[in-house]
Amino acid sequence: MTRVTVWNEFRHEKTDAKVQSMYPDGIHGQISQFLTAAGFEVTTATLDEAEHGLTAEVLEKTDVLIWWGHKAHEEVADEIVESVHQKVLEGMGLIVLHSGHFSKIFKKLMGTSCDLKWREDDRHARIWNINPSHPIVAGIGECIELEQEEMYGEHFDIPAPDELIFVSWFPGGEVFRSGCTFSRGNGKIFYFQPGHETYNSYYNKKVQQVIINAVNWAKATDNIQPAYGHFDALEK
Amino acid sequence: MTRVTVWNEFRHEKTDAKVQSMYPDGIHGQISQFLTAAGFEVTTATLDEAEHGLTAEVLEKTDVLIWWGHKAHEEVADEIVESVHQKVLEGMGLIVLHSGHFSKIFKKLMGTSCDLKWREDDRHARIWNINPSHPIVAGIGECIELEQEEMYGEHFDIPAPDELIFVSWFPGGEVFRSGCTFSRGNGKIFYFQPGHETYNSYYNKKVQQVIINAVNWAKATDNIQPAYGHFDALEK
Amino acid sequence: MTRVTVWNEFRHEKTDAKVQSMYPDGIHGQISQFLTAAGFEVTTATLDEAEHGLTAEVLEKTDVLIWWGHKAHEEVADEIVESVHQKVLEGMGLIVLHSGHFSKIFKKLMGTSCDLKWREDDRHARIWNINPSHPIVAGIGECIELEQEEMYGEHFDIPAPDELIFVSWFPGGEVFRSGCTFSRGNGKIFYFQPGHETYNSYYNKKVQQVIINAVNWAKATDNIQPAYGHFDALEK
Amino acid sequence: MTRVTVWNEFRHEKTDAKVQSMYPDGIHGQISQFLTAAGFEVTTATLDEAEHGLTAEVLEKTDVLIWWGHKAHEEVADEIVESVHQKVLEGMGLIVLHSGHFSKIFKKLMGTSCDLKWREDDRHARIWNINPSHPIVAGIGECIELEQEEMYGEHFDIPAPDELIFVSWFPGGEVFRSGCTFSRGNGKIFYFQPGHETYNSYYNKKVQQVIINAVNWAKATDNIQPAYGHFDALEK
Predict the structure, then answer these.
(1) Residue B27 distance to chain C (closest CA, Å)
(2) What is the largest CA-CA distance in chain A?
(3) Is A139 in the B-facing interface, judged by CB distances under 8 Å?
(4) What are B61-88's pLDDT values in tens digits?
(5) Are C132 and D171 a contacting pair at CB < 8 A?
């Protein structure tokens, strides 16, 4: 059974009534709920726990880590980022959601600024499926309509993704590469744009299905850790 | 249950004693054998059958098509190539083996000459795993050692593959991108180099495992056929 | 001096007053005009000329071919498509504009249906620069605003482009990968979406600059034709 | 005129007679020599200079930075790595040579371990041209033969390169992706494998030509810095 750890900064929910009302159990609570219903073994971890809830023991038991953070990226300890980075390279899947684009771990894996344009305007968004044969879009159809979502616009300063899965349309005139896959070491990474803390995106069935599909896609197969370092010749 | 059709030109086996002795049931027979043992529902089809064994009915029931051809590529009827091409775009997986690089269907899907260097010299080959987290290499380890394989050397005139899975080393001094994935329409395509008709590559357990993995990778997920053509505006 | 051949179907301009008034010298005439001003050596060729104006002699003297076609794709002779295809593989650059997405040559190079959604609604379009360091976007800025352009929408059934350069936003709610590069053989290919026959896109200075940049990008460098076929070992 | 800064660790040359004899003016001296002859404006910088020779002023005047390091990667100050990283994202080209695969700057840009197999055995190497139409291989031909080069073998733990340019063959049985391009922010990066300190690779005319071509390829075109952050709607 695939083991998922849902990491959430969990600050907005404690201080902002609007967020609290939208996600009374925290964003991690809501994500856990639909992942558990989908049959995964789900744990949560949050910033204010010891080691941000990401101890070596927790990471050891994590097949796929989900990351939501926003206003406290800088409070994530570098040692924890190092541990998570190492686990990703060894094969732990990583799903980075929404404002997690600016997290230390995503920037470390990408090597770029991961910057973008943004605007909160309470307007709708449409996420187009650009890669209809990809397992991450199974059951999604041509697009996902969201009643409200924060605008994220290009240029998005990431390396060219290995696979471009979604491109979003915003009524203000912008576009955004809103679903992107990357491989780093043995780890598979999926960035997915929806999830502003005051909107109901994580209640949307298609958004949930994408995250469920992405967990299945990102979990490691029975793969090897290659040998590195000095190597004796195989041929005379 | 995934339904696999193994297509083989099946000419060498009828006329060449060495090939007959290596593959008494035909190359398709040997490939069928290990795919059946792996739990797939396997059918075979060969060039000299009516419609080359690839009737609309057969293609309709095929999740993944495997293609081995060599000296009679030109005898494959264009209409059959069209049907296979259409099915691939609709989501049928395609695994092209060895000299199938010069088949009409592979060239049509690639849009290039698919040409390469070659030499039969009865020497060994080593297929390096370049993409250790890919599902196609699950269980394979760092490389596959073949006692004998035909040399195929760069430059291999294909589009840049979506994913480079294997690179082969040959004792004569050549290298070759010997495992490559491509997406075309909804179809997933895997090219895999081993399989000269006089060598025992399809008895090699790792070669078999790669083909088994590739069938699982290439079969369609529950994906959509996008709508094309005139489209009414979604926004006023 | 880079030699450009601008190929145009040149039918709309003969029969439709609106197109005639927009492009009195033909779409090829307008494209030639700004390419000549940019310092290229420019020739034109059109469908109704002998061999569609694309004789072996013309192709021999063409570094980069530009292709605009729409309603008469099927009238382009297969032999000419073969010649153009062969020249692209040998290193001739190819820039496919707008409805050329459905041309025989583009479909042959892509291996897919190249289908898409479309709508003529006289509304505006915004072409976002997704790849700000690419030579094709030099001098373009963050986006190109067009007063009117035909909507082309995803899914666009092409192989994953080697490089994604532009993504378009349409007011009706659609997005489109409107600038894409591909390599096939030694040839570099650029697809660029603007250019509906009744709109003034080829008078737009930024659209012109993109095409000028693309010619410079697509022209062959001093590269080799690799040796193919039987190859003697380099090592004992 | 393109301004190149050649950065070299410059330690082996001071302590190892064999290296000193191979590169009496330092590896940076030899690289400078052929780049200057090619018409570039060349400066050098080395580890033991103040700020490793990479002051803000030097970086400001650098279009393309070349990086050779080996045994003292850890001595490069993090602040300098940050400055170089920032300049790359802004558009400075970066060419990483040989053991520079393990430099802080390359690892930071890649987000992976950049690990590999290696062996010094004084044997030859053959670098195959996999991408014959790329500007970096102009004038190179099908392969580069080196009398002696250190073996670097797969798996090479890098993200999938944007373009694979060279694959090396080693007599001990290994292969290696020895020429790879990447884009990060506005910066273009080229990794090139040859250049062990005791071998004469930087005297090889083809190796020199590749580096010259790569400088021309990596230098920024007239591109923009996109606007990031809060963004007002373009549409009502």
Answers:
(1) 24
(2) 71
(3) yes
(4) 999 999 999 999 999 999 999 999 999 9
(5) no
